[in-house]
Amino acid sequence: MVFIVETGVGVENANAYCSVEFADGYNSTQIDGQDWGDIDLPDKQIRLVTASQILDNGFDFYGRRLTRIQGLEFPRWGLRDRDGYMLPTAPLPRFVKCATAELARVLGQRADAGGSATGPAASSSSGAVEKIQVGPIALTLASNSSSSSSSTTTSSTVVPLIPRSVSSWLLDYGIPRFGYGSARLVR
Hints:
With 187 residues, this protein is of the alpha+beta class. It has helices at residues 20-28, 41-58, 94-112, 164-170, and strands spanning 59-61, 64-65, 76-77, 121-122, 125-133, 138-143, 156-157, 174-176.
């Protein structure tokens, strides 16, 4: 795989919003980013490319792309910051790079935990009630590994593809395509 980082000028074949060096620096400052440094270079690059693709597909960003031939949705022309000031197209905005580094780390943690990086995570319980108690109130859910039942019920918890820790970087600059977040009201 060829790893090409967008610089803010509309690189035609760019497939990542931030460099591995930027992601290393960002993730080294995050409370749950300590494992990022242990990942080898090709895996980091794959995670950054995947994160960039997910961000592009997950948001309708304000403004418009700088060129028709650029590889990613950024850089963008006509994009304003939180205070209403016009953002320059180059260098690439820090919020895009931070969101990419954050999402790359989160996707990697999901995959490293044995689940799908981009799919639903399996729940630790089947949702079946094993015990109910009225005073003092208690509820116990049956485990998936329980052998007391002849049929196994599985359940999954849907994990947002783009977690809040990522979308919070981007909500001022676009609208999520998957129905969560908030909308900006301009009068």
